[in-house]
Amino acid sequence: MSSAGQSPTTVLVEDTANTYAWSSICSTYDPFGFLTARDTVMDNGRTTSETFFGPQRLSFTETDTAANNANWDSRTTEWNWMGQKTARTITYDNGDQRIERYDPNTGFRIQRTEIDGDDNKNWASLTTTYDADTHVRTGLEKVLDNGRIDITTFDADSGARTSRTIIDGADNAGWHSRAFTYDADTGRLTSSHIVQDDGRSDLVTYADGRLASMLQTDGSSDTFDWQTRETTYDVNGRIALVEEVQDDGDLIVSSYAGGRLTDQTTYDNSGDAAWHVQDVSYDTNGDVTDTTYYDEIGNILIL
Questions:
Q1: How far apart are CA 105 and CA 199, in angstroms?
Q2: Which of 101, 112, 248, 274 has a 20 to 30 A CA-CA distance from 227?
Q3: Measuring CA to CA, how many Å separate 273 from each of 278, 295, 296?
């Protein structure tokens, strides 16, 4: 017989003789006779709600609202159709929440989120992630009450900090975000990236703890006469190379030796000069020793 169009069946059992620890059980069955849901009211006022897929229970929720004899209001555990636990949520009497996610294959917790329901902390939520294999903490995201977001990542093997990003979500600072990366073995800073509210940004990299490069980008306020300015430093921390893309598209490349300017090449990408490339050489005193001009195909121009 076809079950198409048939409604689920609900069966209510009440413990009128007060024989059991529960007062009622309400079970719901699909048209094929499989249990899909069950709600139980305990004698102490506590309730449980369950959902099923075939023989497998998918969720179990326990509510302590009426009984109020625990420090939590509700607890929910979830499983997939194979019976592997995937999530657990606890809502406490004060409104706080804890939400946990599990790897279905290993059963280990891979994420935990704490929510400040009664607003008695300086943060709104804390989310911690874990590696499913090593069980080591790999991430921590903190959402503060002022809207700022603080995200830290960790190495899955050692647990050492590898990065930290701070986002000014409430826009109460002069910058939009600040990001830092670290070497997992030494703990040294390897890069920092600061983005200002107007879009200006500074990306700095480090090598073995020393300054290696800096990429500056101009923002919407057009503070500088260049779009980007990239500086490279030698092993002693002195400027070795500077590349500037001007507002008009021209490119200026300045080379240094021992911290002093030795050569500067300008590429007239805007096309408003009589030459395409200008190359200027400097002596140890910073005086110009030679200036050479080139056309688009590399021929030397006499100007």
A1: 44
A2: 274
A3: 10, 10, 12
Residue numbers of the domain that contains 128: 63-301
- Supply the CATH number for residue 87's domain: 3.90.930.1
Q: Residue 74 and residue 116: Cα distance in Å, rounded?
A: 16
How far is 110 from 64, CA to CA, in rounded Å?
A: 27
Residue 87 covered by a domain: yes
Task: Report the distance separating Cα 71 and Cα 206, nearest Å.
Answer: 50
Q: Is residue 5 scored above 70 in pLDDT?
A: no
Q: What percent of the chain has pLDDT over 90?
A: 85
Look at residue 49 and tell me if it is in a domain: no
Of 56, 96, 95, 57, the C-alpha closest to 77 is 57
pTM, entire model? 0.82
Decide if 34 is inside a domain: no
The identity of residue 175, as a single letter, is W
Residue 1, pLDDT score = 39
The Cα 35–Cα 27 span in angstroms is 7
Please give the C-alpha separations between residue 165 and each of 121, 168, 283, in angstroms, as whole numbers.
Answer: 21, 10, 44
Tokens of 236: 């002693």
Q: Indicate whether 142 belongs to any domain.
A: yes
Report how far residue 148's alpha carbon sits from residue 165's, in angstroms, rounded to the nearest whole number.
10
pLDDT of residue 43: 92
Confidence of residue 2 (pLDDT cuts 50, 70, 90): very low
